[in-house]
Design brief:
The structure is a single chain. This protein is an alpha/beta fold. It has a single domain, classed as TIM Barrel (Alpha-Beta Barrel). α2 packs parallel to α3, α6 packs parallel to α8 and α10 packs across α11. Bound molecules: pyridoxine-5'-phosphate. The site of pyridoxine-5'-phosphate (PXP) has 18 residues, from β8.
Length: 238
């Protein structure tokens, strides 16, 4: 199981004081040195944390893989085409949300997404879709011509251990199996932490995690190197 680390909230700390530190690119490089196999960030339309200058620095410095999460808008497409990340992850975005609230509704947005995805792919960018564990949504991702999806683990992560959470985990298992059968590379993320990650890591079709908040939070206490190494140690046997 590969770990990619979302470094958005290093920029959140910086923006809390409109300062110039901590430097997210430095966090990204330390995360890579500690075993992360990719760096993820989300450029939001309000630029509340990650900004264009961060993307340029990431593109210069990241040696593993740069994955930029963004909404499927014209503004964001222009940014992706300029920065040329290795992966663009398409996510829905509601301006007041604290964090991404669900997967992208590819069924409702199929017409718009088709040409948007093609344009990114034509520029050599791999496109991922952040999607709820819903078989119909996943089938539509395949139809749209992507070969990578990230299953939203947010519902599972919000639940306490018990029957409801087991049901949410089962949905993720079924979704991962279905995606894999359709020939998609299957990743997962959202809300995963040091306690809830193992049952998801044990799903064989999921090959990569995108984890942010809990690693940044733990970094504030023990440093990023240890925070990343602890997560890698938890998931690497899968
Ligand atoms: N995947 C996607 C698509 C996200 O939007 C986020 C949050 O930015 C994550 C994964 C990581 O979630 P968390 O910060 O809760 O680990």
């Amino acid at each position: 199981m590969k770990l990619t680390v979302n470094v958005d909230h290093f920029a959140t700390i910086r923006e809390a004081r409109r300062s110039n530190e901590p430097e997210p690119v430095l966090a990204a490089l330390l995360a890579e040195q500690a075993g992360a196999e990719g760096v993820v960030c989300h450029i939001r339309s309000d630029r509340r944390h990650i900004k264009e200058r961060d993307l340029k620095l990431f593109r210069e410095a990241v040696k593993t893989k740069l994955n930029i999460e963004m909404a499927a808008t014209e503004e964001m497409k222009r940014i992706a085409l300029e920065i040329q990340p290795d992966v663009v992850s398409l996510v829905p975005e509601r301006p007041e949300e604290l964090t991404t609230e669900g997967g992208l509704d590819v069924i409702a947005n199929e017409k718009h997404l088709g040409p948007h995805i093609k344009e990114l792919q034509k520029a050599g960018i791999k496109v991922s879709i952040f999607v709820d564990p819903d078989l119909k949504q996943i089938e539509t991702c395949r139809k749209l011509g992507v070969n990578l999806i990230e299953i939203n683990t947010g519902k599972y992560a919000d639940l306490k251990p018990g029957e409801e959470r087991d049901k949410a985990l089962d949905e993720i298992k079924k979704a991962a199996g279905h995606g894999h059968k359709l020939g998609l590379e299957v990743h997962a993320g959202h809300g995963l932490d040091y306690k809830n990650v193992l049952p998801v890591a044990a799903i064989p079709e999921i090959t990569e995690f995108s984890i942010g908040f809990c690693i940044v939070a733990r970094s504030a206490i023990v440093g990023i190197e240890r925070a990343v190494k602890e997560m890698v140690a938890l998931i690497e046997k899968y």
